[in-house]
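Running this now, will post back.
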Amino acid sequence: MRTALRSSQAFTVRRSQIRLSSASGQTPRRIARQLGCADQTVRNVLRSYEREGLACLEQKSSRPKTPTPELDAGKREQLRAILHQSPRTTDRAHSLWALNTVAEVCCGKVLARAQVSDETIRSARRRLGVSWQRARD
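Update: finished.
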């Protein structure tokens, strides 16, 4: 625990300071005042230590464990309808869809809050099982 105080990660140092201060009998309010953080932060660290042990000293990923797709099932069906049209019906000069063109059309038709990434279109297309380059009748 004391070696964690020399860590290069501020997250680890702060949590170690909180845990060691608590082990020496200080209250969460006093620890918070000493370290310049909120009482609730101290309580959260102490609860985390009870659940995880020393593993709580390492910062976890902030990425959601189950990311939600940008395009839900209804919007993917609208995407399917778009992909079954020629890009020329949306005033595009080409007869083949490109991922960035599909993303622009989706944004224009308000399927997404902002223009989505190529990867969002690729994964939605994969879920639909649709070929995206040439329009199908």
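The two ends are 66 Å apart (CA to CA). More later if anyone needs it.
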